[in-house]
Each structure stands twice: as C-alpha cells, then as structure tokens.
Design goal:
With 319 residues, the protein is of the alpha+beta class. The chain has three domains: 56 residues, Arc Repressor Mutant, subunit A; 202 residues, BirA Bifunctional Protein, domain 2; 43 residues, Roll (SH3 type barrels). The protein is built from nine helices and 14 strands. It binds biotinyl-5-AMP.
C-alpha cells in the first residue's frame, strides 16, 4: 500500500481526527487528505466523518486494500473479482519486471493445476499467486512450493482445520469415507512456475488454490475436495490471506527452515505410496523429504529420491 495512504489509514483507525490535523501530521495538503479518504471509501473502507473528524469504522471484508491493511509482509496485493488465472496474471507482471506482488482473486474462470489440469475456482475462494524474485539457483525452486504448502497449512490450522501436507503440493484434511474408511480431502493445491538460468532464478510464481468459503458441492466430486467453510464454517478471508502471506514471507527468508516445517505437518511420511514420475512408477514407503523438496521412497530394495511426480497414498500392506 502506498505509504501516505497507509499512514492516513493508521491515523483514521486511531481517530477521530480532523482533516487539518491529519494534513499537518502527514505534511500534505487538506485536499490530499480528502483524496485519500475518498479513495479509501471507494476501496470499501467505511470512514465516518463527524464534528470530531474522520474515523475508520469498518474494513472491507476482502480485496486488495483490505488484505494490505495491517499486513506484516512486503507484498503489494492486486485484487480481481474475477480473472482467468492469477498465475497467468502474475507471469505477465513478471514480464513487466514486477516483484513481491500477490495477485488475488475471488473467482477464476480458467484456473490451472499441474500438467495443465483444470482447477475449479468458484467465487468465495482464496485464489492467490505470489510473484517473487529470490536470489537462489533454479534447483532450489521446489522449496517455494513446500513453503507455500506450509504457509497454507499453518493458516488453516490457526483457523481450526486439521490441515496436513501431502507431497509435494496438496494441503489435505483427514476424514472418513461414507463406509468409514480413512480418506484425505484436498483443501488446497499449489502450482509453482519459474523462469531463470541454472545458476539463478529470475522469478518464481507460486500459485495457491485454497478452497475457502466454497461449497464442496461446487467442486469436482471425483477430486474428493474439502473447503474451509465445510470444515469450520466461513472464515475471514482477509485475515486468512494475510496469515498465508506472512507465513510464506517468513519461510522464504529462511529456506533452510522449510523442510523441517514441512515434515511437522506431513501426512505422506511413513505411508506406503505410489509415485507416478516422468521416469516411471515407484512404490514403497515414503521415509523422508530432502531439501529442496525431494521425496525419499524406500522400495524395499533401495532408496529412491523422487523430485517430481503425482503421489498416491496407499493402504498399508496387511501383515
Ligand atoms: C494443483 O494441481 O493442485 C495446483 C492447483 C493450483 C491452483 C492455483 S489457484 C491460483 C493459481 N492460479 C491458477 O490458475 N492456478 C493456481 P494438481 O495437483 O494438478 O491438481 C489438479 C486436480 O485437482 C484436478 O485434476 C482435479 O481433479 C482436482 N481439483 C480441481 N479443482 C479442485 C479444487 N478446487 N479443490 C480440490 N481439488 C480440485
């Protein structure tokens, strides 16, 4: 958020404060104060004006300015009511040289998963893509996918949801099928895209598709989805998005902390898995995750390190 706007907001939240007082405090003209107040009202902030001055009464439920307000992470938030794909928009911004931008949408009309799969994104979700320019080699890029999964899992856990991470990019919630069998429902998925040379990343776009205040019936049933609202009731998407951004910002500043944090919430470790990799199928026990994000599978004969693939959790083998 622009600095003067932020200072106006801070003053209004401690208000009431008169226009002339505010102008003096911020060293701007009274007309400039009025313009800022009007712009804030247009962005959905409710600013009362009485004899004692202006006062902030309500913050918008969701949106760019709403998420930036009080955000403890250095992201500019670009909000869209509806957009084909926040990842596509973030890639365009990357082409324009932008950095530390969060593209956020209420609805996506062309959301994408990995391998160009469709990602259902009805209104009520948190469809979010972060454009960052880390000073790391391209091989470290998978750590950003893991960091995003940890950030989403932590924010969801704070909201009261038993969120876990399934390697490499799914945030899931354990539950039971209709017949009582254990199952995991997908709460969020992550799609990371990047550009750069081998020795240095130019940009990374980390797309997070979080089923927030969405009816699971509006999502593809065969994907076994769940949503925050189905788990704990509607959440405050403004606060939730802020928490995701803040957690992600902490993790990216200390990439070494990502894998241990990931292990803490992992549901994959210790499970029998089948991983579809570009080089073929691997079945065995998932025993560890290594920096920057590879899964180590013990096949019984050997330990295989898998860097990419679709992972399925299998039922344990009967003893
Ligand atoms: C993912 O792909 O899980 C990555 C999803 C990333 C979406 C975000 S939203 C913001 C940003 N902008 C974008 O355009 N994309 C990113 P993958 O692991 O390939 O999973 C895709 C599969 O999940 C689909 O084939 C469906 O079976 C299932 N699916 C689709 N929509 C879903 C949803 N809303 N919730 C749960 N599962 C879904």
């Amino acid at each position: 958020m622009q600095e003067t706007r932020e200072r106006v907001l801070d003053a209004l939240s401690e208000g009431p404060v008169t226009g002339p007082e505010l102008a003096e405090r911020l060293d701007v003209s009274r007309a400039a104060v009025w313009k800022h107040v009007e712009a804030l009202r247009e962005a959905g902030f409710e600013v009362a004006s009485g004899d004692a001055g202006y006062e902030l009464v309500a913050v918008p439920e969701f949106g760019g300015a709403a998420v930036e307000y009080g955000l403890a992470a250095p992201f500019d938030v670009e909000f869209h009511e509806s957009i084909p794909s926040t990842n596509a928009r973030a890639r365009d911004l990357a082409g324009e040289g932008a950095a530390d931008v969060a593209v956020l949408a209420d609805e996506q009309t062309g959301g994408r998963g990995r391998l160009d799969r469709e990602w259902s994104s009805p209104s009520g979700g948190v469809w979010l893509s972060l454009l960052v320019r880390p000073d790391v080699p391209a091989t470290h890029a998978p750590a950003f996918t893991l960091a995003a999964a940890v950030a989403v899992a932590r924010a969801a856990r704070e909201a009261g949801v038993d969120a876990r991470i399934k390697w490499p990019n799914d945030v899931v919630v354990p539950g039971e099928d209709a017949d009582g069998a254990e199952t995991e429902r997908k709460l969020a998925g992550i799609l990371t895209e990047m550009e750069g040379e081998a020795d240095r990343v130019s940009w990374v776009v980390v797309g997070m598709g979080i089923n927030a205040n969405v009816d699971p019936g509006d999502l593809p049933g065969d994907a076994r989805p769940t949503t925050l609202s189905a788990e704990v009731g509607d959440v405050d998407r403004r606060v939730f998005t802020q928490r995701v951004l803040e957690e992600f910002d902490d993790l990216r500043a200390d990439l070494e902390s990502v894998v241990p944090a990931w292990r803490e919430h992992a549901t994959t470790l210790g499970k029998r898995v089948r991983v579809d990799t570009p080089g073929g199928e691997i079945v065995g026990e998932a025993v560890d995750v290594e920096f920057p994000g590879a899964l180590v599978v013990d096949t019984g004969d050997e330990r295989v390190t898998v860097t990419a693939g679709d992972c399925e959790h299998l039922r344990p083998v009967e003893e």
